Amino acid sequence: MNVISRFVFALLVAAPVQSLAQDATIAAGKQEYMMGCAGCHGESGKGDGPLADMLEIHTPDLTRITERTGGGDFPFYNTLKLIDGRDVRAHGGSMPVWGDRFQISATSQRGETADMVARGRILSLVAYLGSIQQ
Ligand code: HEC
Q: Which of 12, 85, 89, 96 is most buried, taking the most CB atoms under 10 A from its CB?
C-alpha cells in the first residue's frame, strides 16, 4: 500500500473499527456495572443505589470522578486501580476488592489466566465509567 491508500484505509476502516470496539467495550462494562455496582452506586452512577443507605460511609457519585479530580481527562488508570483494589487496599472497607472477586470467579478458558479475565472485566467497567462522566 502506498501512503495515500494507507491513509484512506485508516480513515475508512480503522477509525470505525476502533469506535465499534469502544462501543462494545462500553456496553459490556455497562452490563457488568448494572449487575455488580448499581446496588450501591445506583443505576445512574450517582451513589444512590438501594444498598447505599446501609453503608456507614458515603457511596461516591461515579459520574463525577473527573470533576472530583479537578476536571481535564478522566483518570483512567487511577480508577482502574481503585476498582481492582488489589494494589491499593487490603481486605475490608465497604467497596469490594473486585480484582480478587473477578479472579476467584473466573473459569480459565483457552489459556487465559484468571487474572487476565479479571483485568478484562475491570477494563470494560472503567471504559463504561469514563463514558458517563458529567
Ligand atoms: C457494597 C457497596 C458497593 C458496591 C457493590 C460497589 N461499590 Fe464502589 N464504592 C463503594 C464505597 C462505599 C466507596 C467509597 C470508598 C471505599 O469504600 O473504598 C466506593 C468507591 C468506588 C470508587 C472510587 C470513587 C472515587 O472517586 O474515589 C469507584 C471507581 C468504584 N467504587 C467503582 C465501583 C464499581 C465499578 C463497582 C462494581 C464492579 C462498585 N464500585 C461496586 C461501595 C460499593
A: 85
